[in-house]
């Protein structure tokens, strides 16, 4: 593990910002820290990047416990770079910005020159060395900040919401660059984002935060396909999430017995992906499927797909069907229909 | 009125012809104020950094005290310094009273709040981004502070210039601890005060013009600097 | 543009700093406020400085500016002349901040010496105090004895009076006259707007009285030196009360007792006594100070 956080808590002015956070990032990972704005991502990154000290808890970097002050902390900090949410450049030229991290490390001048030129090329800013940092566009500024971080050749690159201030094109461009860099360099990336599509496109592992706590951590697939809590389920876009009691014969949710394939017992949640729910006019009972009779509450168009809300007693289930299916079935509001889904489609947690 | 115009005429002649008395006073004033400003800057810019970059109880209170002291009466500083360096005072054996060094000391203290306070403002103006950027790029604490100072250099220079402006135009310290000794501790302001009292109007006007020019150079430079910061 | 300005400022600063070291002390400029044009004397390397605190009347008349370079040349010392009222000069003496004082307030000088702060009170010159006022003399003080003049001012309320109000020797003399006239000084001070406390040296007080058309008590030397610029005229100039004796006192705790003694000897030497007697005669046509070193001034 290149970075491990143990029982990290952070309080500022009486507010608990982080509570008992445990996290580990393996060497070479592209770790994505997700969660809504204000959930503590930035605070956690500042602690991970050794910029801030936690109120309590331990930070391990490069398999060593990092003390709260002293030379060892500085040395560890010098092996990582944090790219702040809204990067600022120093006064002066692009070159002087990029070389600064090397200068404070006492790198010889001739080496600095080669490294800076190489890294400017890497971010497609050849020939920008003499430009005044105040005259750059948003995308250029972002790339200079990236170059300024990369020139140090860090083991860990921490990025705090790098895409927020960029328009969609630049954002796509930056994500592509980051993915390339990750595959080329072997640097461990830790990136915070409130937009999980970023995470899906480049992350390998990650964590989701909520109110200063880690909600779930694991591989990106685990997070997106096996959410462990209702919050996680809704965060990754799951719908039809219901509390249920799990018994021998199945789960009871809203007074209905729902068959599933998990061996969970006691209280928990189940979720049924809308695309797994089939709507029909007639009942066709098969053993491996769940069947419910209900009334159509509403039909809404969401993009090229239609969402149909069906009220089945205490549960309102949402099903997604295509336009052709909708016309074929001739579904309208107030109609009685049958909905069914496979037991194996039910996600239990 | 004609009398005043006449005096003004003579004053201008004194300046144009480089009157040795007038210019030696102006030069001495400049040396004393510059020394005081440099010494104060060397001591109190670091002090400002210490205050700004450390968190401690009562920090806000301390900063507001410092801001209140921007306009501390010069005679009050003069009096305190007098009591300390008078031979009967705690620092009496230094023999500093009635020397240019005494004026420098007093002015260093007089402008300390301005230099400290305005430097703190300059550093605060950099927000959290600049220090964070420096630290995240691997700066040690000192390297970070130096970088933030260099990024805010125009504002810090403004602080120093404001300090110089106050030092060069004050009279309380110069007259109380300097004693207005001819050829030794006589400054522009004390010479003007004495000259007016003794009816030496022309010479006083000449000195006044020089003092005003110095003050104007300072304030012009300050406004140019501030303009360039806004960019 | 900005860099240009900054670099120019820097150059100027560096230049000043560079030449400041050697020349800042060499430019002992001539007295600004007087017409003495002796050549400026560069201080000897490692010269000892001697500090004399003098009453403003000896300063404003230019006497010290006249004597200072002579003393400096003769003894190879830098003489720092500090002007202040007698009260302040005595206080500096008490604190040991000056080496010698030249003042004019006999009772306080004697007390000062008695308390051990000064070695000896040595009178070296005298002149007279004057009550001066605007030529129209609204209170008709002309020719009166000083006590009577003050009594008239207090009683009939015609005319303003500007007091030094600074605890100086002249101020002390004024208080003594009020006492002799039969008043408590505090009562006079608080009796109304006609009594103005200037709080300045003799010269500025004269300028103030002139501006206001007021009366004031002044030493003769300063008045004569300033007379050319003023409309004020001497109105009361007779009476023993008005005698004004200047003394030199070496401070017991002087840092440089030998040089302090030199200054006392210098002031009382025959040559300098003669110079004091002749000072200002050429310019004003009248003697400003009467030398009196060695004479018995006990009675007066």
Can you tag this structure with a few keywords?
heterotrimer; A: 349 residues; alpha+beta; Rossmann fold; 2 domains; 5-stranded antiparallel beta sheet; 36% strand; elongated; C: 300 residues; alpha/beta; D-Maltodextrin-Binding Protein, domain 2; 13 helices; globular
Q: What fraction, in percent, of the residue positions of chain A are helical?
A: 25-40%
What is the CA-based Rg of chain A, rounded?
25 Å
Biggest sheet descriptor of chain A = 6 strands, mixed
| Structural class estimated from helices and strands of chain A | alpha+beta
Give the helix level of chain B as a range of percent: over 70%
What topology, given as strand order, has the largest sheet of chain A?
6-7-8-3-9-10
Q: Total domains of chain B, how many?
A: 1
Mean pLDDT of chain B: 92
Protein chain pair with the most extensive contact, residues per chain:
B-C, 40 and 42 residues
Q: Please state roughly what percent of the residues of chain A sit in beta strands, choosing from under 5%, 5-15%, 15-25%, 25-35%, 35-45% or over 45%.
A: 35-45%
Q: Within the CATH hierarchy, at the fold level, what is the topology of the largest domain in chain A?
A: Rossmann fold
Structure commentary:
- The complex is a heterotrimer of chains A (349), B (231) and C (300).
- Chain A has 349 residues and is α+β, with helices and mostly antiparallel strands.
- Chain A has two domains: 3-229, P-loop containing nucleotide triphosphate hydrolases (Rossmann fold, 3-Layer(aba) Sandwich); 239-348, RNA polymerase II/Efflux pump adaptor protein, barrel-sandwich hybrid domain (OB fold (Dihydrolipoamide Acetyltransferase, E2P)), CATH 2.40.50.
- Chain A is built from ten helices and 20 strands.
- Chain A has helices spanning 41-48, 71-77, 94-103, 109-122, 138-150, 168-185, 196-202, 220-225, 230-235, 323-329, and strands at residues 3-12, 15-25, 30-34, 56-61, 64-65, 80-83, 156-160, 188-193, 205-210, 213-219, 241-247, 250-253, 256-258, 266-271, 278-280, 289-302, 305-312, 315-322, 336-342, 347-348.
- In chain A, the strands form four sheets. Chain A has a six-stranded mixed sheet with strand order 6-7-8-3-9-10, with helices on both faces. In chain A, strands 13-12-11-14-20 form a five-stranded antiparallel sheet. A five-stranded antiparallel sheet of chain A has the order 15-19-16-17-18.
- Chain B is mainly α and 231 residues long.
- The longest helix of chain B is centred in the N-terminal third of the chain and has 34 residues, at 20-53.
- The relative contact order of chain B is 0.16.
- The mean pLDDT of chain B is 92.
- Chain C is an alpha/beta fold.
- Helices cover 44% and strands 18% of the residues of chain C.
- In chain C, 45% of the residues are buried.
- Mean pLDDT of chain C is 83; it is low at 1-47.
- The B-C interface holds B 20-21, 24-25, 27-28, 30-31, 34, 86-89, 92, 95, 97-98, 100, 157, 179-186, 191, 194-200, 203, 221, 224-225, 228 and C 2, 5-6, 9, 13, 16-17, 20, 23-25, 27-33, 40, 51, 60, 65, 68, 78, 80-83, 94-98, 200-201, 203-204, 207, 226, 229, 253, 255.
């Amino acid at each position: 593990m290149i970075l491990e956080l143990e029982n990290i808590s952070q309080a500022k002015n009486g507010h608990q910002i982080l509570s008992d956070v445990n996290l580990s990032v393996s060497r070479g990972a592209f770790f994505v820290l997700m969660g809504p704005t204000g959930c503590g991502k930035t605070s956690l990154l500042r602690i991970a990047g050794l910029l801030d000290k936690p109120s309590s808890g331990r930070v391990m970097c490069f398999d060593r416990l990092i003390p709260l002050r002293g030379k060892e902390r500085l040395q560890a900090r010098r092996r990582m770079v944090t790219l702040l949410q809204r990067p600022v450049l120093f006064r002066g030229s692009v070159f002087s910005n990029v070389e600064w991290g090397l200068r404070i490390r006492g790198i010889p001048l001739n080496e600095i020159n080669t490294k800076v030129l190489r890294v400017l090329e890497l971010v497609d800013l050849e020939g920008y060395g003499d430009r005044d940092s105040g005259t750059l566009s948003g995308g250029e500024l972002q790339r200079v900040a990236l170059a300024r971080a990369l020139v140090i050749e860090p083991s860990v690159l921490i990025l705090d919401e790098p895409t927020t201030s960029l328009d969609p094109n630049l954002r796509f461009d930056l994500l592509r660059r980051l993915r390339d860099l990750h595959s080329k360099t072997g640097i461990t990336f830790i990136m915070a984002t409130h937009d999980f599509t970023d995470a899906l496109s480049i992350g390998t592992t990650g964590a989701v935060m909520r109110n200063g706590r880690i909600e779930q951590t694991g591989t990106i697939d685990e997070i997106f396909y096996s959410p462990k809590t209702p919050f996680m389920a809704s965060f990754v876009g799951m719908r039809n999430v219901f509390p249920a009691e799990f018994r021998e014969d199945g789960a009871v949710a809203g007074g209905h017995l729902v068959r599933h394939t998990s061996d969970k017992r006691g209280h928990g949640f189940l979720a049924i992906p809308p695309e797994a729910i089939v709507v029909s006019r007639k009942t066709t009972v098969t053993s491996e499927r769940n069947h419910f009779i209900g009334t159509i509450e509403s039909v809404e168009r969401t993009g090229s797909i239609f969402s149909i809300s069906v009220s089945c007693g205490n549960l309102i289930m949402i099903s997604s069907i295509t336009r052709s299916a909708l016309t074929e079935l001739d579904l309208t509001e107030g109609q009685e229909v049958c909905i069914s889904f496979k037991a194996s489609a039910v996600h239990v947690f | 009125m004609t009398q005043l115009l006449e005096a003004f005429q003579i004053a201008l002649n004194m300046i144009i012809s480089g009157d040795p008395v007038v210019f030696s006073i102006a030069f001495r004033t400049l040396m004393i104020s510059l020394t005081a400003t440099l010494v104060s800057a060397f001591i109190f810019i670091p002090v400002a950094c210490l205050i700004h970059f450390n968190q401690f109880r009562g920090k806000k209170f301390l900063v507001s005290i410092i801001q209140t002291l921007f306009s501390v009466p010069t005679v009050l500083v003069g009096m305190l310094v007098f009591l300390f360096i008078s031979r009967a005072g705690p620092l009496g054996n230094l023999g500093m009273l009635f020397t240019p060094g005494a004026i420098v000391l007093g002015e260093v203290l007089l402008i300390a709040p301005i230099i400290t306070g305005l430097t703190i403002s300059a550093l605060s103006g950099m927000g959290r981004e600049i220090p964070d950027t420096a630290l995240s790029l691997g700066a040690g604490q000192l390297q970070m502070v130096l970088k933030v100072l260099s990024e805010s250099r125009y504002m810090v220079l403004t602080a120093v210039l404001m300090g110089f402006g106050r030092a060069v135009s004050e009279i309380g310290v110069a007259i109380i601890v300097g004693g207005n000794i001819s050829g030794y501790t006589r400054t522009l302001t004390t010479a003007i005060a004495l000259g007016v009292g003794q009816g030496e109007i022309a010479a006083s006007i000449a000195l006044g013009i020089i003092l005003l020019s110095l003050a104007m150079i300072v304030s012009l430079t300050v406004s140019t600097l501030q303009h360039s910061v806004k960019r | 543009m900005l860099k240009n300005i900054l670099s120019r400022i820097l150059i100027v600063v560096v230049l000043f700093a560079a030449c400041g070291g050697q020349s800042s002390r060499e430019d002992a400029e001539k007295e600004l406020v007087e017409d003495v044009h002796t050549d400026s004397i560069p201080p000897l390397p490692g010269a000892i400085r001697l500090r004399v605190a003098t009453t403003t009347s000896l300063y404003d008349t230019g006497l010290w500016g006249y004597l200072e370079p002579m003393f400096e040349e003769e003894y190879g010392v830098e003489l720092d002349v500090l002007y202040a009222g007698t009260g302040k000069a005595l206080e500096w003496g008490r604190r040991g901040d000056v080496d010698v004082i030249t003042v004019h307030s006999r009772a306080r000088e004697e007390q000062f010496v008695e308390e051990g702060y000064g070695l000896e009170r040595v009178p070296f010159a005298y002149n007279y105090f004057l009550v001066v006022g605007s030529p129209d003399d609204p209170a008709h003080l002309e020719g009166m004895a000083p006590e009577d003049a003050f009594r008239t001012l207090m009683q009939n309320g015609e005319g303003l009076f500007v007091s030094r109000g600074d605890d100086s020797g002249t101020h002390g003399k004024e208080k003594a006259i009020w006492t002799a006239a039969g008043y408590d000084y505090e009562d006079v001070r608080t009796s109304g707007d006609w009594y103005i406390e200037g709080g300045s040296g003799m010269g500025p007080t004269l300028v103030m009285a002139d501006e206001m058309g007021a009366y004031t008590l002044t030493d003769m030397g300063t008045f004569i030196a300033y007379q050319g610029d003023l409309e004020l005229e001497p109105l009361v100039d007779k009476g023993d009360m008005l005698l004004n004796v200047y003394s030199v006192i070496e401070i017991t705790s002087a840092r440089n007792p030998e040089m302090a003694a030199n200054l006392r000897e210098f002031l009382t030497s025959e040559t300098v006594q003669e110079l004091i007697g002749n000072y200002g005669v050429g310019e004003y046509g009248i003697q400003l100070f009467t030398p009196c070193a060695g004479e018995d001034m006990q009675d007066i």
